Amino acid sequence: MTLLMLAPRINETGLQLLTRARHRGLRAHTAVRWEVPAGLAGLRPAHLYGGPLFADVAAGVLDILPLEPPADWLTVLPAELLTRRVECTSLAEARRLRRPAFLKPPVDKLFPARVYPDGSGLPGPDALDDDTLVLVSDVVAFASEYRLFVLDGEVRAASRYAVAGSLAVSPEVGPDVLAFAADVLATGGLPSAVVVDVGRLDDGGWAVVEANPAWASGGYACDPDRVLDVVLRAAGPAGALAPADLGYARPVPEVVR
């Protein structure tokens, strides 16, 4: 029986995926600790949904290779799709910033993603290694922001999630959002299953916000069945991974207990 393993402290999207997976006949189970229950560790094929911490402890046990976008994907996009400067640098370099910037870890939530007055507020070397990657972006104002679950280069599910920087969830997504998304996805450089966020700027233009792993992203008002389609591909059996996705597989650490 196919297994969908969900992380502890399940969120609303996880609850929806749990229900939809069971309707499909999958064995969906929410872990009670940050580990795979011994009775489920041998089930194959297996998939997972949860954050990076859970992926690191569960992927190796379940023979899963989670897919994630490249850390520097934003930095190689055409300028017209970004409308701002974005660079991927080390935490040591980012700490030296003396200007406001939006700072975030590319994938793992190692520190809060937000606008910082400068780099002095970032975690010090006692908390995170100097070579930890950081995305540094010019500050821009988005009038509205949208989450797109993408499978094989096409948007499978979409939802608005913010207006003027505040949470404002809605299933209504206009054709202009999807048209811009098509331009973004045509540039490539992403795994076959991924989440891409885009936004309308205050001046009416469009820009990419970021890309994230589908197995660690909230669905907001997206159709949960379609979200599940993307999640199952984004974190599935290592042996079923398409050659084109191999370069996007998250390294699976050895967990020592």
Can you walk me through this structure?
The structure is a single chain. The protein is of the alpha+beta class and 257 residues long. 21% of the residues lie in helices and 30% in strands. Strands 11-10-9-12-13 form a five-stranded antiparallel beta sheet. Strands 5-8-6-7 form a four-stranded antiparallel beta sheet. The chain is globular. The relative contact order is 0.19. The mean pLDDT is 95.
Summarize the structure.
By secondary structure, the chain is an alpha+beta fold. It has helices at residues 12-23, 52-62, 79-82, 91-94, 175-185, 224-234, and strands spanning 3-6, 27-30, 46-49, 64-66, 86-90, 101-104, 114-116, 133-137, 142-151, 154-163, 166-170, 193-201, 206-212, 235-237. It contains 6 helices and 14 strands.
Rg is 18 Å
Elements, N to C (H/E): EHEEHEHEHEEEEEEHEEHE
Helix content: 10-25%
Q: Output the strand order for the largest sheet.
A: 11-10-9-12-13
Count helical runs.
6
Query: Which strand-content bin applies to the residues?
Result: 25-35%
Overall SS class = alpha+beta
Q: How far do the termini sit from each other?
A: 28 Å
Biggest pleated-sheet summary: 5 strands, antiparallel
Mean pLDDT comes to 95
Q: In one word, what is the shape?
A: globular
Properties at a glance:
4-stranded antiparallel beta sheet; alpha+beta; 257 residues
How would the blueprint of this fold be written?
Layout: E1 3-6, H1 12-23, E2 27-30, E3 46-49, H2 52-62, E4 64-66, H3 79-82, E5 86-90, H4 91-94, E6 101-104, E7 114-116, E8 133-137, E9 142-151, E10 154-163, E11 166-170, H5 175-185, E12 193-201, E13 206-212, H6 224-234, E14 235-237
Parallel strand pairs: 1-2, 1-3
Antiparallel strand pairs: 4-14, 5-8, 6-7, 6-8, 9-10, 9-12, 10-11, 12-13
Helix pairs in contact: 1-6
